[in-house]
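hey so u asked for the seq, here:
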Amino acid sequence: MIDQKKFTELSHTIYEELKSIREHLHRHPELSFEEFETSSFIKSKLNEWGIDFSDAWVKTGIVAKIKGEKGNSTKRIAIRGDIDALAIKEENNTSYKSLNEGCMHACGHDVHMTSALGAAYILNQLKGEINGEFLIVFQPGEELLPGGAKGMLEEGALGNPLPDGIIGLHVEPTMPVGNLGFKSGKYMASGDEVYIEIKGEGGHAAAPHKHADTVSVAAHLLVELQQVVSRLTPPSIPTVLTFGRVIAPGATNVIPSKVSIEGTFRTFDETWRKKAHQKIHDIAKGMAMAFDIEINVNIVGGYPVLKNDKSITKKLKQSALDLLDKENIDELDIRLSAEDFAVFSQQIPACFYRLGVRNEAKGITFPVHHPKFDADEEAVRYGALSLSYFAYQLIASN
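ran it, structure tokens below
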């Protein structure tokens, strides 16, 4: 077994370069499935370090391969880092502020990529003492359905058979830098997009009896659909149905001919997920009949439930004690946010854990998807260290 001190030493050795890599990636964010310059930069680093890779998976995805030179084990462990950014205008004033107007790494994918690159560097340095193979998966399009994970699996990017395990991390701005967080079993919800159109013959607001009052129907429908969660969902299944966008292009004296409603449905049970979809359709159908109006519902199926393999998660939590004090290891709760890594977790034994990035002394406290989100620079060292050491522990264990 390789002593954890070697991983720690290498994480310190590469740390200054990792900071530079992260700053470069943060300055040059790219939207989902458009990460061409990001992909080129990652490949340049892999070439510089002498690490083999295949590319052009779902256009911009990359899979680096590091083969251990000690023995002939066929065991394979994958590490995943997502590479896309969000359509958000950055409001930070750092030296590494986004140079791409209206685009920002507001979800920490710059940290994820850098951590994965750092893990690749460390494992490549130690490959002479390792028996087995590592895949470092740089995945495009995490922020946009259908997501890049599905495409990479369908294109065979992770090989056949699939790896014996896969791990990934995500920044966590509520946790201080230097902390890691774990949750065994079901961890993150499925996430579907709900699009509803209410159509009718609009007209003058002074004569609603002569027209289809699309706005009033939309209001009734929004309230009625909350029954899906408050009255129809089994109490043991966390579920949320939230509508964040309503478009009614009328006026003070105009009833519009169409109102659009857009929202998200999230839950932790695949069977209930399908039933709930039908309930949404049924409620809309009943409302359409009651008001003699046309209502069309389109539910776009998104990411499935993210499941952390209990055995792998237990192993990683134990391994974390080799790197950190017990008080720096957090037990996480379930969360109703969704994540494309879930697609991998449905087919490969997986663990998706959290990486602390908060530093109150530096004012680094904003949540993800916020224009002032940032991560403490030290997080990339902890990310590279934990990913590489955890992957090695899974390769080395029975």
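The mean pLDDT is 97. The longest helix spans residues 270-291.
lmk if thats what u needed
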